[in-house]
Specification:
By secondary structure, the protein is mostly helical. It has helices at about 5-10, 15-30, 70-100, 105-130, 145-150, 155-185, 190-220, 225-235, 245-250, 255-265, and strands at about 1-5, 35, 60, 140. The strands form 2 sheets. A two-stranded parallel sheet has the order 1-2. A two-stranded parallel ribbon has the order 3-4.
């Protein structure tokens, strides 16, 4: 019997991209075949031990070069940025299940499925980039995503609020307009790829919402109040700015009250 936390350590503490993808898929297949244990008898290593590849070079979001989608270079840069988001998302899913112990087995199964889907997304985008003669790592990428993981390494509710219910949920707001733009340009392969990612991300955010409410109930918090509190605490600027895709966010587990608060211009 293989152990999910041993897979997690191997994925988080090894910088090899291809090995990470292979291990993620192996873990998912082990789960599907009933060959995966969720017993956690080893200590959890510090998040500072997590290893990333040497490339891409990471820059602060404000230092990232500005490129427009109307150029070949701009499209390549856009998909390189998306590749980086999906690559870090593999780490985020693995770290979610690795770092927070004592949850029901379904929690670990959910985040393993998400890790596997993020690995599929990354592989698809990497292939898409190669068709544009760009490899993942050729361009710089922004460093902000993993900072949220480090900030919330000791608080499961904060991690669930900030990663699936804030950063990933942003994709539900912005991706439909990007799909429309690529459709206008007649770029069917980009449209298909972004649609695949968007459809999966709705499910990822929904799992974040489900487990956020589950842990709130466990700990005696009213989940809408706790969400507002954590976003104010951890989100630079107080809370994200809209517009918000209400329809998709409702499907992904947001309440109307949460969305009303997000859309309100005052805190």
């Amino acid at each position: 019997m293989k152990n999910v936390f041993e897979f997690a350590e191997a994925c988080l503490h090894n910088s090899s991209i291809d090995e990470k993808l292979a291990l993620t898929h192996q873990a998912w297949h082990a789960l599907e075949n009933g060959e995966l244990s969720f017993i956690s008898d080893q200590p959890v290593m510090s998040i500072a031990k997590v290893k990333f590849p040497d490339k891409p070079i990471l820059l602060a979001p404000r230092d990232m070069p500005k490129r427009k989608l109307g150029t070949v270079e701009g499209v390549a840069a856009f998909f390189h940025a998306i590749a980086h988001v999906e690559f870090v998302a593999i780490y985020l899913a693995w770290d979610m299940l690795y770092r927070f112990r004592g949850m029901p087995d379904q929690f670990y199964q959910d985040w393993l499925r998400i890790a596997d889907e993020e690995a599929q997304h990354f592989a698809l985008i990497r292939t898409h980039l190669l068709a544009m003669h760009v490899a993942y790592g050729d361009l710089p990428a922004h460093s902000g995503l993993w900072d949220h993981a480090k900030d919330t390494a000791d608080d499961l509710l904060a991690r669930l609020a900030m990663v699936p219910r804030c950063m990933e949920a942003r994709g539900l707001d912005v991706t439909p307009a990007l799909i429309a733009k690529f459709r206008q340009q007649g770029d069917d392969s980009s449209v298909a790829l972004l649609n695949r990612i968007l459809n999966d991300e709705v499910g990822h955010v929904e799992r974040g919402s489900y487990w956020f409410k589950f842990v709130c109930e466990q700990q005696g918090f009213e989940h809408e109040f706790k969400y507002r509190q954590l976003i104010r605490q951890y989100y630079q600027g107080g809370k994200p700015k809209g517009p918000f895709n209400r329809e998709m966010r409702i499907i992904a587990g947001f309440s109307n009250a949460e969305l009303d608060w997000l859309e309100n211009t005052t805190l």
